[in-house]
Amino acid sequence: VVQPNGAGDDIAARLRRQTSMINAHQKNPDPQSQAHIKRAQSNLEYLSERIQVLNQVQSGGLAEQSITSINLQLLIDRAESNFRQLDQDRTDIELITHNATTWELYKNATLISHLYFTILDEFKHFTDQTLTVTSSIQSNDREGSKTLNIVVRPITSTVQINDPNGLGMRYFNDVLDALEGEAELTGIGRNRTLSINLPIYARYIHP
Fold this sequence. Notes:
Elements: H1 7-25, H2 31-59, E1 70-71, H3 72-86, E2 93-98, E3 103-105, H4 109-123, E4 131-140, E5 145-153, H5 167-178, E6 182-186, E7 193-200, E8 202-204
Parallel strand pairs: 2-4
Antiparallel strand pairs: 1-3, 3-8, 4-5, 5-7, 6-7
Helix pairs in contact: 1-2, 2-5, 3-4, 4-5
C-alpha cells in the first residue's frame, strides 16, 4: 500500500490544495466560485480513485479489466476531456494521433486511460509552454503483436520519472508496469523527450 512517507507527503500536499480551494470559495454564492468548488471536489474524488488503483496494482489485486472494446482515438479523446475538466492550471496541451481511429482496444482500456490522464496531469507545464503527446500504433503482422507508442515532449528538468516519493511518478510507473510497458527519457534541458512503448491487445478496423 501507499506508505505514509514519500508519496504520502505528496498526497497530503494535493489534499491541501483542493481543500484550500474549497475553503476560499465556499462562502461565495456566485457561479464562478461554485465552479471552482465543483472542480476541487472532482479532483479529490479522482485522487481517491488513483490511490485505490495504486494500492490494487501494488498488491496484485487489480480486477480484470472489462472486455468491452473501445476505439483508441475515443479513449484518448475521453482522457483529454477528463483532464481538462479537472485541470486548474489552464494547461496548454496538444495531442497528436496517427492511425488511432483504425484500432480498437479490447483489453486493459481502463488502465491505458489512466496512463494517458497521468501523462497529461504529471508532465504538464506551469508556463505557456505546450506539452505535446503523440500516439501511434506499430503492428507486427508476422508475430501478431501490437505496440502503442507514446512520445511526450518536452519534459521539464524537474521531472524525474523514477522518483519513488511522488504519488504521480509512482502511479505512472506502477500502471506502466502493470501494462508491461517501457519508458525511456532522452535529451537534456528543455529538449527532454519521454518515449513509451506499450504492448496492447487491439484489432484493426477498416476505415
